[in-house]
Design a protein that fits this description.
The structure is a homotetramer of 322-residue chains. By secondary structure, the first copy, chain A, is α/β, with parallel strands linked by helices. Helix content of chain A is 47%, strand content 11%. Chain A contains 12 helices and 8 strands. An 8-stranded parallel beta barrel of chain A has the order 1-2-3-4-5-6-7-8, surrounded by 4 helices. In chain A, helix 2 (63-77) packs parallel to helix 3, helix 9 (227-238) packs antiparallel against helix 10 (242-259) and helix 10 (242-259) packs antiparallel against helix 12. In chain A, 56% of the residues are buried. At the A-D interface, helix 7, helix 10 and helix 12 of A face helix 7, helix 10 and helix 12 of D.
Chain lengths: 322, 322, 322, 322
């Protein structure tokens, strides 16, 4: 059972990998692959694991499956790194129930996106206030700002007001796009003032990670199939080597961009994880994308190019990206 | 256990009331109110009951609650009228699981809306083809066309192609808006040709019910808090008295329009059902609307006006609206 | 040339009819019909005219046509009632140019909706601040809140802040839907506090006009093809006869609802105006709806029913609806 | 006056640069910069120029400005390469008028996106059929498929049907995202069958250009601030050196991705063009983005990194990218 110290907080930093959910070809949760995937992520040096996000196909799992998956992963990780559990749901009751299940099982926090259908920023505030009241003070929350997925937009003052009012809001998953300025405004609101700090981790597949780090992000919460790149970039950057970090990133950028395609990107990510031995099947639950022969050939080409670039690139010194 | 004859089919006609889901003030399913609500609907003469639709807050129930609710209602109705179960879900696996649960419990069919996120009509067709394959030939399907709620649009040829290919598609829940012409095109495609007929029932709170009946609808599948109006309008119309049917409808139109407000309309509907004794609490699960004092006073005024109008209007003869 | 007194202001009240733009069957502006339409509206007792709104097909006119149309209508009205000119445009420069043209020609004010593509409420505020700065203090502005048409949502505090900062914002065209509570919150913000008042006129085809008046609206800015109904309802209501006003409204409600269909509703409205002799052709510019034979027969039926109801209803005494 | 041979057609290939519209700091069209920009593009080797696209801020120009800009650019280009004119407009009449103006002035074709608000694919087909009828057979059309900008989605069969019916549809601007498979389906529909060919040029800032070329694209129609990269990539690819083409592309990818940010991306593009001497001011018309100090410093860093990479990269042999 993880210690309370494992909870996420305002100073959480590094890479919280957005975990896929492994399925068998029949669409059942593939529990052995869950274990191997966890070990894969940890071996690549991630600083945390986030499960049941949108790219974890949470919305296609039953409530029972969600709870079982959360418990299983938390048990397997066994306190080695914090585990954040996505609990977004159309109904607040279900959201609260899963949150409590997750925290009781040892989760380090929960991740919540605004419910689709919220229109104004007052509605967004009211929504989260309701949730924070229902969750109580002991469940740390990562608020996910992902308008492309939720169709809900809010501005920096709304977020700051939520932080001012709700102490359990400790992390901001930034994936508004474009959103570099927004990220910086959130960062400065706390750094320059006497306000409470929150951790800022970036999503969107990491497409702008070097820029986001330079603007004040604390790391990444995203799911690229080469987690070691995210780790190396963050660690190199925080060691003070911004240009070297960006060099590493740029090596992988063609693939980051390729995985960033909404929909089919998840099938690409799972196929790479399969090829790397992390999971047994690349199956995505229906309705979901499936790679065809052309997609596979294209991926072959991109992976081959990546290997070529990596073998040509100067290795980051082990001191930086340990 | 209902007989096979209770299944919905191409000739289903009348009012399939979209049932609310009654909650206690604490947000739990209120089982005694479920029973009283079923009896209320049946006493008003509905020809079928549809549960777990959007206005039934299905998306805010857990999977376990959905299954329990479906079984309970089907058991309570006990074959007196057909029960259709809404099974729309972000994941096809969950959709299929609930469908089978419902049919095994005695449901007359399932209702399915296209998953949010489908963009093109080819995607819509592929989505339903996948589902029809997974459900098999023995589960009659009502396809719900509700772009305002799903953000998915498709045109008549796409629907007709689905009908041509999938024998279990037997009912069209029409609630595109505006959509009078679409309804008529679907009707004519079958009436004028040698094609297979489907039943067309109309949603959208019944706002255009008289026009829809004149254009060929077989009835209504919607949830107005005065189901007897929907029943009287349909029965009067099918008895050959279109103008008299529309007179009845127009009496209630101010309230139909009032209930038609997206969001708050559900709170209004539940409050009327509460006042009429059908359910014990008007609670809507979070995130959801709640009437304030002004809303309640406004509703008082509208209900008072309805009563006044009803007592002034000539009663429909019992021969028409038996 | 109208006097300065004709400008819209915080106490503007009554019916500002949203004017259609009459076209010939070939799609050219039909200038004789513009004149006859103006006279039709004025003969029905409207208290103002709003041109170049969305239902005026402003977006399908060239900039040259917009300016010419505005000048022509303002000249024809000749100060008998105030004329508001819709100037919404994707570019602020064009918006400002048309505003100045309109005001120079004698317009009473301009109507502006937020540009499609604004996402957050900070963006909405910035957008209007830019515009108010560019327009200067002498052009009274009616801000149109129509999320169904613009996909831009904002909440009451954002609107109040704009009012606090921008003295030329004098009128709120309320057509959020549902939006009864929003309207009332805006009203109370001024009535209950020492804040500056704004006029509130309601759109959405007038579908909730009696409720809106009871909640504090100053009238309607919408375009129903029977402007005399809107006038009678408002005047009867402001004479203190709320129930009588609503009785008048309810008579027309079936048709209000019919005209309220997005898209085809404009073709219906123009066809009624044509039948009533206000314009020579019901043509809507492409891309736009066109009534077919079924639509026309349906409209016949609804108009026949309206006539029947009107001849049966007690006439409002001339003292109320003068 | 350009010769008829300059018209776009089914075999058009290469880079049609999406031109920005240069403004002075006051927001007026900067005519000297228009000239210098044209010369800049031509000096970089583009095979065509497309003006008045969305990234050309066409929607913020008045109709008069659009016509003047089109004539000016066409005159300046003077037949050296084909000029395509974006004519998308909410009203078909304005669209047709600008099309004829452009063609009379010597345009090689017009580019048209479906009007925002079209919902079903039948509506999309009807929309374009109307337009093709109105334009007649002598105006070659490039159909722009950009759902992220228009919110209109259609599938391959709909596009193919339009091609079958409308001979003047000769070019497909592919920028559905993700859309690699769609592009390939369109390509194969013509290559594998006896159908009429269309030219396929890709947009989306060129983010997937190497993949798109491999899947059958004929080139790019997009507006990256380094047009020479697009030219080199296409020419190298068509010379049979796909890997070398992708190497060139990958060098620029960090900047391609940076410019790809919706909204602020245009300000970045214009700022780079300003720094490169192509235009005098980076001004974007309101409402539009403006770079702040942080944005500028970030851009400095990215440009510096690009220079470093370019000086390190092996030059493409002149034989490939002539």
């Amino acid at each position: 059972m993880p210690s309370p110290a494992a909870k996420i907080g305002a100073h959480s930093r590094g890479v919280f990998i957005i975990s896929v959910t492994p399925f068998t070809d029949d669409g059942e949760i593939d529990w052995p692959s869950v274990d191997s995937l966890v070990e894969f992520y940890l071996a690549k040096g991630v600083h945390g694991v986030t499960i049941l996000g949108m790219m974890g196909e949470a919305q296609k799992l039953s409530d029972t499956e969600q709870a079982a998956f959360a418990k299983h992963v938390i048990g397997r990780v066994a306190g080695r790194v914090p585990v954040v559990v996505g609990v977004s749901h159309a109904g607040v009751d279900n959201l609260v129930r899963l949150s409590k299940t997750a925290i009781d099982a040892g989760a380090a926090g929960v991740m919540i996106a605004p419910a689709t259908g919220l229109k104004t920023e007052v509605q967004v505030r009211d929504y989260f206030s309701t949730i924070f009241n229902r969750l109580g003070p002991d469940i740390p929350v990562c608020l996910q700002d992902y308008p492309l997925g939720t169709s809900v937009n809010f501005s920096v003052p709304t977020f700051l007001q939520l932080v001012d009012e709700d102490p359990s809001l400790v992390m901001f998953k930034h994936e508004d796009w474009p959103g570099l300025r927004k990220l910086q405004q959130v960062r400065r609101a706390y750094d320059g003032e006497a306000r409470r700090r929150v951790s800022i981790l970036c999503g969107n597949g990491g497409l702008y990670l070097p820029q986001e780090l330079r603007r004040g992000a604390d790391g990444a919460m995203t799911g690229f199939a080469y987690p070691e790149m995210l780790v190396q970039v963050c660690e190199t950057f925080f060691a003070g080597h911004a240009e070297a970090a960006e060099d590493i990133f740029d090596c992988y950028l063609p693939l980051v961009r390729h995985e960033q395609q909404i929909g089919v990107g998840l099938a690409i990510r799972k196929e790479i994880l399969r090829r790397r031995g992390a999971i047994a099947s690349a199956a995505v639950r229906a309705p979901g994308p499936r790679l065809d022969r052309d997609d596979a050939a294209e991926l072959d080409s991109l992976l081959h190019r990546l290997e070529r670039r990596l073998s040509a690139a100067p290795k980051p010194s082990s001191g930086l990206a340990a």
